[in-house]
Amino acid sequence: MDWQTLTTQLFGAGHGITREGDFLHGEVTFDGEPLTVIGTTDHAPIGVQLALRQARAVLDTMTRHPGRAILLLIDTQGQQLRRRDELLGINRAMAHLGMTLDLARRRGHRVLGLVYDQALSGGFITSGLIADACDALPEAEIRVMRLPAMARVTKLPEAMLADLSESNPVFAPGVGNYVAMGGVRQLWQGDLAEALREALASAPTTDCRAQDGAARGGRKLAARVIQQVLDAA
Protein backbone atom coordinates (compact mmCIF):
# COMPACT_ATOMS: atom_id res chain seq x y z
CA MET A 1 0.00 0.00 0.00
CA ASP A 2 1.37 3.46 -0.87
CA TRP A 3 1.59 6.12 1.81
CA GLN A 4 -1.11 8.36 0.30
CA THR A 5 -3.68 5.56 0.34
CA LEU A 6 -2.68 4.57 3.86
CA THR A 7 -2.86 8.06 5.35
CA THR A 8 -6.15 8.80 3.62
CA GLN A 9 -7.68 5.65 5.09
CA LEU A 10 -6.33 6.53 8.52
CA PHE A 11 -6.97 10.27 8.69
CA GLY A 12 -9.11 11.31 5.73
CA ALA A 13 -8.25 13.15 2.53
CA GLY A 14 -7.26 16.41 4.25
CA HIS A 15 -4.77 14.81 6.64
CA GLY A 16 -1.98 17.36 6.09
CA ILE A 17 0.90 14.88 5.98
CA THR A 18 3.50 16.04 3.47
CA ARG A 19 6.34 14.42 1.59
CA GLU A 20 9.79 15.94 1.16
CA GLY A 21 11.90 13.54 -0.86
CA ASP A 22 11.63 10.22 0.96
CA PHE A 23 10.68 11.91 4.25
CA LEU A 24 7.07 12.02 5.49
CA HIS A 25 5.93 14.28 8.30
CA GLY A 26 2.88 16.08 9.60
CA GLU A 27 0.50 16.68 12.47
CA VAL A 28 -2.97 15.16 12.34
CA THR A 29 -5.99 14.96 14.57
CA PHE A 30 -7.16 11.45 15.37
CA ASP A 31 -10.23 10.89 17.55
CA GLY A 32 -9.98 14.50 18.64
CA GLU A 33 -6.36 14.17 19.79
CA PRO A 34 -3.25 15.53 18.04
CA LEU A 35 -0.81 12.97 16.65
CA THR A 36 2.65 13.46 15.12
CA VAL A 37 3.33 11.36 12.04
CA ILE A 38 6.91 10.71 10.93
CA GLY A 39 7.98 8.30 8.24
CA THR A 40 9.66 7.31 5.02
CA THR A 41 8.53 6.11 1.61
CA ASP A 42 9.70 4.58 -1.67
CA HIS A 43 11.86 1.98 0.14
CA ALA A 44 13.99 4.86 1.40
CA PRO A 45 17.62 4.12 2.23
CA ILE A 46 18.30 5.70 5.61
CA GLY A 47 21.37 7.90 5.30
CA VAL A 48 22.75 10.55 7.62
CA GLN A 49 20.43 13.29 6.36
CA LEU A 50 17.24 11.24 6.56
CA ALA A 51 18.07 9.82 9.99
CA LEU A 52 18.74 13.30 11.35
CA ARG A 53 15.54 14.71 9.82
CA GLN A 54 13.48 12.04 11.56
CA ALA A 55 15.33 12.61 14.82
CA ARG A 56 14.72 16.38 14.53
CA ALA A 57 10.99 15.76 14.10
CA VAL A 58 10.94 13.60 17.24
CA LEU A 59 12.86 16.21 19.25
CA ASP A 60 10.58 19.01 18.01
CA THR A 61 7.54 17.02 19.13
CA MET A 62 9.02 16.52 22.59
CA THR A 63 9.86 20.22 22.87
CA ARG A 64 6.64 21.70 21.51
CA HIS A 65 4.08 19.03 22.40
CA PRO A 66 5.07 17.09 25.55
CA GLY A 67 3.33 13.74 25.81
CA ARG A 68 1.91 13.74 22.27
CA ALA A 69 1.72 10.32 20.61
CA ILE A 70 4.01 9.62 17.64
CA LEU A 71 3.22 7.30 14.72
CA LEU A 72 6.15 6.03 12.65
CA LEU A 73 5.29 5.00 9.07
CA ILE A 74 8.01 2.61 7.97
CA ASP A 75 9.11 1.85 4.42
CA THR A 76 12.87 1.41 4.14
CA GLN A 77 15.46 -0.74 2.41
CA GLY A 78 17.82 -0.23 5.35
CA GLN A 79 20.82 1.99 5.84
CA GLN A 80 22.29 3.98 2.97
CA LEU A 81 25.24 2.04 1.54
CA ARG A 82 27.30 4.98 0.38
CA ARG A 83 30.84 6.06 1.21
CA ARG A 84 29.76 9.63 1.92
CA ASP A 85 27.34 8.51 4.63
CA GLU A 86 29.88 6.12 6.11
CA LEU A 87 32.46 8.93 6.31
CA LEU A 88 29.88 11.25 7.91
CA GLY A 89 29.14 8.65 10.58
CA ILE A 90 25.90 6.97 9.55
CA ASN A 91 26.19 4.68 12.58
CA ARG A 92 26.08 7.67 14.92
CA ALA A 93 23.20 9.31 13.03
CA MET A 94 21.10 6.16 13.18
CA ALA A 95 21.98 5.66 16.84
CA HIS A 96 20.90 9.26 17.47
CA LEU A 97 17.53 8.52 15.86
CA GLY A 98 17.07 5.46 18.03
CA MET A 99 18.00 7.38 21.17
CA THR A 100 15.54 10.19 20.43
CA LEU A 101 12.73 7.64 20.12
CA ASP A 102 13.81 5.99 23.35
CA LEU A 103 13.90 9.39 25.07
CA ALA A 104 10.41 10.20 23.77
CA ARG A 105 9.09 6.98 25.28
CA ARG A 106 10.79 7.72 28.60
CA ARG A 107 9.15 11.15 28.63
CA GLY A 108 5.68 9.70 28.24
CA HIS A 109 5.12 9.85 24.48
CA ARG A 110 3.32 6.84 23.12
CA VAL A 111 5.44 5.75 20.12
CA LEU A 112 3.88 3.34 17.63
CA GLY A 113 5.53 1.91 14.52
CA LEU A 114 3.67 0.67 11.44
CA VAL A 115 5.43 -1.21 8.64
CA TYR A 116 3.21 -0.43 5.68
CA ASP A 117 5.50 -1.57 2.87
CA GLN A 118 9.07 -2.74 3.45
CA ALA A 119 11.33 -2.83 6.49
CA LEU A 120 14.90 -4.02 6.26
CA SER A 121 18.01 -4.03 8.37
CA GLY A 122 19.20 -1.00 10.34
CA GLY A 123 16.47 1.27 9.00
CA PHE A 124 13.95 -0.94 10.82
CA ILE A 125 16.03 -1.58 13.93
CA THR A 126 16.39 2.14 14.69
CA SER A 127 12.72 2.95 14.12
CA GLY A 128 9.91 0.42 14.49
CA LEU A 129 11.81 -1.96 16.73
CA ILE A 130 12.43 0.85 19.25
CA ALA A 131 8.78 1.92 19.41
CA ASP A 132 6.48 0.91 22.27
CA ALA A 133 4.95 -1.47 19.75
CA CYS A 134 5.48 -2.17 16.07
CA ASP A 135 2.59 -3.38 13.94
CA ALA A 136 2.41 -4.13 10.21
CA LEU A 137 0.10 -4.51 7.26
CA PRO A 138 -0.30 -8.12 6.09
CA GLU A 139 1.33 -7.41 2.73
CA ALA A 140 4.42 -5.80 4.26
CA GLU A 141 7.87 -7.27 3.70
CA ILE A 142 10.17 -7.50 6.72
CA ARG A 143 13.64 -8.94 7.02
CA VAL A 144 16.94 -8.02 8.58
CA MET A 145 19.20 -9.99 6.28
CA ARG A 146 18.77 -12.10 3.14
CA LEU A 147 19.86 -15.71 3.41
CA PRO A 148 22.89 -15.27 1.07
CA ALA A 149 24.18 -12.42 3.25
CA MET A 150 23.42 -14.41 6.40
CA ALA A 151 25.43 -17.31 4.99
CA ARG A 152 28.42 -15.05 4.39
CA VAL A 153 28.26 -13.61 7.91
CA THR A 154 27.65 -16.88 9.78
CA LYS A 155 29.92 -18.99 7.50
CA LEU A 156 27.10 -21.54 7.29
CA PRO A 157 25.93 -23.05 3.97
CA GLU A 158 23.01 -21.18 2.47
CA ALA A 159 21.19 -24.50 1.94
CA MET A 160 21.42 -25.19 5.68
CA LEU A 161 20.00 -21.78 6.51
CA ALA A 162 17.20 -22.31 3.98
CA ASP A 163 16.29 -25.58 5.71
CA LEU A 164 16.39 -23.91 9.12
CA SER A 165 14.13 -21.11 7.88
CA GLU A 166 11.39 -23.64 7.18
CA SER A 167 11.03 -24.44 10.88
CA ASN A 168 12.62 -21.52 12.73
CA PRO A 169 11.30 -17.95 12.24
CA VAL A 170 14.65 -16.49 13.36
CA PHE A 171 16.19 -17.54 10.04
CA ALA A 172 13.26 -16.60 7.83
CA PRO A 173 12.05 -13.32 6.33
CA GLY A 174 8.37 -12.43 6.15
CA VAL A 175 5.94 -10.49 8.27
CA GLY A 176 4.37 -13.66 9.71
CA ASN A 177 7.71 -14.77 11.10
CA TYR A 178 8.25 -11.41 12.79
CA VAL A 179 4.84 -11.72 14.42
CA ALA A 180 5.85 -15.18 15.66
CA MET A 181 9.10 -13.81 17.09
CA GLY A 182 7.31 -10.93 18.81
CA GLY A 183 9.09 -8.22 16.82
CA VAL A 184 5.78 -7.29 15.23
CA ARG A 185 2.93 -7.19 17.71
CA GLN A 186 0.02 -7.64 15.31
CA LEU A 187 -1.21 -7.17 11.75
CA TRP A 188 -3.69 -4.46 10.80
CA GLN A 189 -6.57 -5.79 8.73
CA GLY A 190 -9.97 -4.43 7.78
CA ASP A 191 -10.69 -0.93 9.09
CA LEU A 192 -7.24 0.66 9.43
CA ALA A 193 -8.50 3.61 11.47
CA GLU A 194 -10.00 1.20 13.99
CA ALA A 195 -6.73 -0.76 14.01
CA LEU A 196 -4.81 2.43 14.83
CA ARG A 197 -7.31 3.30 17.55
CA GLU A 198 -6.86 -0.10 19.18
CA ALA A 199 -3.08 0.00 18.75
CA LEU A 200 -2.73 3.36 20.47
CA ALA A 201 -4.95 2.24 23.31
CA SER A 202 -3.16 -1.06 23.92
CA ALA A 203 0.50 -0.38 23.09
CA PRO A 204 2.59 -1.65 26.01
CA THR A 205 4.87 0.66 27.98
CA THR A 206 7.36 -2.11 28.75
CA ASP A 207 9.25 -4.35 26.32
CA CYS A 208 7.32 -7.62 26.09
CA ARG A 209 8.67 -8.86 22.75
CA ALA A 210 10.60 -11.75 24.26
CA GLN A 211 7.52 -12.92 26.17
CA ASP A 212 5.39 -12.61 23.02
CA GLY A 213 7.95 -14.59 21.04
CA ALA A 214 7.92 -17.36 23.63
CA ALA A 215 4.11 -17.49 23.74
CA ARG A 216 3.92 -17.63 19.93
CA GLY A 217 6.66 -20.23 19.57
CA GLY A 218 8.94 -18.02 17.49
CA ARG A 219 11.63 -17.29 20.11
CA LYS A 220 11.57 -20.09 22.63
CA LEU A 221 14.58 -19.19 24.79
CA ALA A 222 14.93 -15.40 24.83
CA ALA A 223 12.44 -14.71 27.63
CA ARG A 224 13.85 -17.56 29.73
CA VAL A 225 17.44 -16.36 29.34
CA ILE A 226 16.45 -12.76 30.14
CA GLN A 227 14.74 -13.91 33.33
CA GLN A 228 17.75 -16.01 34.34
CA VAL A 229 20.02 -12.97 33.93
CA LEU A 230 17.64 -10.82 35.98
CA ASP A 231 17.44 -13.46 38.70
CA ALA A 232 21.22 -13.68 38.87
CA ALA A 233 21.72 -9.89 39.02
From TrEMBL:
One Pfam family in the UniProt entry: MdcE
Protein name per the record: Biotin-independent malonate decarboxylase subunit gamma
Source organism: Pelomonas baiyunensis
